[in-house]
Amino acid sequence: MATPENTLAFDGGWEYAPAPESTDHVEIDKRYGLFIGGDFVKPEKGRYFDTINPATEERLARIAEADAADVDRAVKAARKAFGPWSRMKAAERGKYVYRIARIIQERAREFAAIESLDGGKPIRESRDVDVPLAAAHFFYYAGWSDKLEYAFPGRKVKPLGVAGQVIPWNFPLLMAAWKLAPALACGNTVVLKPAETTPLTALKLAEVIADAGLPDGVVNIVTGAGETGAAVVEHPRVDKIAFTGSTAVGRVIQKALAGTRKKYTLELGGKAANVIFADAAIDQAVEGIVNGIFFNQGHVCCAGSRLFVQEAVADEVVEKLKDRMETLIVGDPLDKNTDIGAINSAAQLEKIESYLEIGRSEGGEMFQSSCTVPDTGYWCRPTIFTGVSQSNRVVQEEIFGPVLAIQTFRSYSEAIAKANNTPYGLSGGVWTDKGAKIFKMTQNVRAGVVWANTFNKFDPTSPFGGYKESGVGREGGLHGLDAYLSLEA
Amino acid sequence: MATAAEKTRERLSVAKTYKLYIGGKFPRTESGRYFKLTDKNGVVVANVCRGSRKDFRNAVVAARKAQPGWAGASAYLRGQILYRIAEMLEGRREQFTAELNRQGIAVRAAEKEVDASVDRLVYYAGWADKYQQVFSAVNPVSSSHFNFSVLEPTGLVAILAPEDSGLLGLVSNLAPAIVGGNTAVVLASASRPLSAISFAEVLHASDLPAGVVNLLTGYRDELTEHFASHMDVNAIVYCDGGKRAARQIQSLAAGNIKRVVERSGIEWSKPGAQHPYLIRDTQEVKTTWHPIGT
Question: How many domains, chain B?
């Protein structure tokens, strides 16, 4: 237990000098149009909205707002491009997708800086996770283009047509890659709608796609908010919908698609259990907890937002976690020392803060690190709740912020029962020194992705997606191809 | 019920009461309602239970309770139990043929339907310990992890069986769901319900744990909304029904993001109507990241 002698002095006078990523190589236009049929075009109604830097609240660019007529133009362009694209020699199609991967790698620094500017995530994460994974995703699926007949034994495969894809603001470029890469490799054309708070990297990706020489109309990017997304989902000439976002919106989409022939995949919310057994390597587990809930400000659908610690080590884990939280640096997303960047938007910050209030009013004990945060921008200090139970709203509902709810358990069966007591089923984590226990746990957690002695790991070869109300279908890996093909006898 | 053959015999036959099959028991519908099934001459063949929402909810409770145990059974055992169902059905070939015939199917066609149903069960019995090998994957991730994806049952599957294929259609949709470790609640064809209930007797004699399959008879128009909206159902498989039903089912399924599987216009007697992708329809892909080294 902690004594003055063995407690680390985190306020021991150490300070990190600022280490900001340079942005002089970054080019952001004042205004962006819609990317339709290979060109940036003006929106028909001429409406634009601001995309801002959530760390400074300053405007980065004006972005075109697509209405139903613009979406219709984009779908027509995609429809027109579909025939030649789907009939193209598969190996050639693959080579286009390889080109996209290579150009992203070449322009990685620029993409990372823009991702952090527009979305608020720490540069370390955009640089080391988002951008390299996006490039890897294109590279992985590029190679599938001419090998699809090996993926589904006994079936013939055919592309679906035009895919309408609606992506969230938490991993803007990476989600675009998750959606575009398999769609293109399988021979579909695309209308993609980025999130309204983070459209920039998708629009930069449009430049990449143009530079790669993809035929006009194969990829179309329409920017806007919910109404634009609804226009994509409801367009009668779209054959497939891929959506990543909240379960509430997923439900609306599933209803909107009822009675149509559109195929769909939904990657929705989560409330993942991260389970720490007493025999786990505790320091490593604490790092895993931090990575599980504070990675990307907790704006992660698979975040480990429910922590379950075996009673014998609960006090030790919570104490070490609090110590570790004190070392986390919250601030400038472009600073390479920053651990936790800006909350993505004012609306999201308001939502997170309302949950902090709910957590306290329901009797939870809240702890936040004592760090300072900048005066402008949207910030939330890393937060944990102890003394909460299964019925508390901060335990049951997805907060999508750096807020962790901690509970304890005694036995394996109690851990499983508590972990599965949720309508969600996207991911889970288990920490133990025992391989057999890992397998027993991972077998019984009702979730699509389970991490053992790690958390929030992603790879293009590794399928991702949820059980229960966390969604339908998988993205990534061989299993991710299914979403973009029709299988025939 | 009275049959024509009865008049030529001295002995009065004992007619069967057709009931529901829920949790390994044969209860009457709690609603006390029935509908008359008549043969082509208008003779009453049976008073069939007109199952209710409450019957369905009871069936879901039974199916949920049975699910972890059934999913936890070894693939070999599940295969053997499906094979056993085939054996039991084969042994009652004459009974099923006669029953299909009484529901308006010519004897030759009825024989073929029973034979095909037996063969279909054998087909899926064989898949029990193989589909996993075909559909799972080891994924070569860049980090030091053994990463693999396997199929797991979606959980509880509600099935609206085909209307015009009372036995084969039922078997063809039920077998791929349960062979993968799901439990099922099935609404049988309303115009050909008898074989479904007799099939429940076959299931009952096949070491299939109680609650793994639950069979209801009743009106599809009445029960569809409950099948599609129940919050403890993980997937709904519906056969035929047209565009209006499709819209209703998919729309209600959104309440808890059910997996929706439509199987329309399928000729269940064709060889192409059996394949392991029907098993996969009600499976989830689980990906595990297992550490390598320390």
Answer: 1
Q: Is residue B13 part of a domain?
A: no
Assigned domain for A8 exists:
no
| Cβ within 8 Å, pair A268-B134 | no
A380 is catalytic: no
> How open is the CA angle A136-A454-A109, to the nearest 5 degrees?
35
- Residue A5, pLDDT score: 66
- Find, among A260, A183, A170, the residue nearest to A221 by Cα: A183
How close, in Å, is residue B224 to chain A by CA atoms? 15
pLDDT in tens, A106-119: 999 999 999 999 99
Residue A69 to residues A42, A66, A243, B65, Cα–Cα distance (Å) = 12, 8, 21, 51
pTM for this model (two decimals): 0.95
The answer to whether residues A400 and A351 touch, using CB atoms and an 8 Å cutoff, is yes
On whether both A282 and A259 belong to a single domain, the answer is no
pLDDT in tens, A1-25: 556 666 666 655 677 899 999 999 9
In a domain, A72, yes or no: yes
Same domain, yes or no: A195 and A320: no
Find how far residue A326's CA is from the centre of its chain.
Answer: 26
Alpha helix (H) ranges present in A216-345?
226-234, 247-257, 282-294, 311-327
Give the ranges where A156-303 is alpha helix by DSSP (H): 172-185, 200-211, 226-234, 247-257, 282-294
Backbone angles phi, psi at B69, to 5 degrees: -65, -45
Mutate to test the interface with A, among B149, B256, B278 (most CBs of A within 10 A): B149
Q: Are B237 and B253 in contact (CB under 8 A)?
A: no
Q: Does the active-site annotation cover A301?
A: yes
Residue A208: CA count within 13 A, CB half-sphere? 29
Chain B positions touching A247 (Cβ under 8 A) are: 257
**Distance from C-alpha of A168 to C-alpha of A245, rounded to nearest angstrom:** 6
Distance from C-alpha of A27 to C-alpha of A7, rounded to nearest angstrom: 47
Residues 6+ apart with CB under 8 A from B249: A258, B224, B227, B228, B236, B238, B241, B260
Strand order in the sheet with A471-472: A39-41, A34-36, A219-221, A189-193, A162-166, A240-244, A263-267, A471-472
Residue B169 φ then ψ, to 5°: -65, -40
Domain containing residue B219: 20-291
Does A234 have pLDDT greater than 70?
yes
Residues 112-171 in A contacting B (C-alpha not used; CB under 8 Å):
136, 153-155
The residue among A163, A90, A95, A103 whose CA lies nearest residue A135 is A103
A152, A154, A160, A166: CA torsion to nearest 10? -30
CB contact under 8 A, A454 and B275: no
Domain that holds residue A166: 13-268+470-488
Does B109 reside within a domain? yes
| Interface test mutation site (partner B, options A252, A274, A479, A485, max chain B beta carbons within 10 A) | A479
Residue B4 — pLDDT band, cuts 50, 70, 90? low
The sign of the torsion formed by the CA atoms of A364, A369, A375, A379 equals negative
Contacts of A160 (CB under 8 A, 6+ apart): A186, A188, A239, A240, A263, A484, A485, A486
From B258's Cα to the closest Cα of chain A, the distance in A is: 7
Per-residue pLDDT band at A40 (split at 50, 70, 90): very high
CATH of the domain at A418: 3.40.309.10
Is the domain of A308 the same as that of A410?
yes
For chain B, give the mean pLDDT.
95
Active-site residue (options: A21, A267, A469, A475): A267
Name every residue whose Cβ is closer than 8 Å to that of residue A472 and which is 6 or more positions away in sequence. A254, A264, A265, A266, A465, A466, B257, B259
Helices then strands, counting H and E runs in chain B, come out as: 10, 10
Which DSSP category does B21 fall into? B
ipTM: 0.95
Query: Does residue A131 belong to any structural domain of this protein?
Result: yes
